[in-house]
Amino acid sequence: MAKTLTFGIMHLGIAFSVTYALTGSLAISGAITFIEPAVNTVAHYFFDKFWERRERQAKTHAATPEAKTAARYAAA
Are 62 and 55 in contact (CB under 8 A)? Predict the structure, then answer.
């Protein structure tokens, strides 16, 4: 947990520093420092849902008789 917390703090520091270097604005840098991780968290949630659905579909496809036959012929 300490590593994760340290990485999070480092991420915020880098985000603030880069944004401040580009804009010279403390207000914009502060806003982006916290807006970006919030947006990223929401995007990650939907990405996980997409990825889980993709894995479920792959498992379903692998369990079909056609997929087992194709795998048998591919191994031969």
Answer: no
Query: 0.85 cut: is pTM over it?
Result: no
Q: What is the C-alpha end-to-end distance of the chain, expressed in Å?
A: 48
Distances (CA, A) of 72 to 29, 67, 75: 57, 9, 5
CA-CA distance, 64 to 21, in Å (whole number)? 55
Per-residue pLDDT of the chain (76 residues; tens, 9 = 90+): 899 899 999 999 999 999 999 999 999 999 999 999 999 999 999 999 999 999 998 888 777 767 666 667 776 6
64: left (phi over 0), alpha (psi -120 to 50) or beta: beta
Residues 6 or more apart whose CB falls under 8 angstroms from that of 50 comprise: none
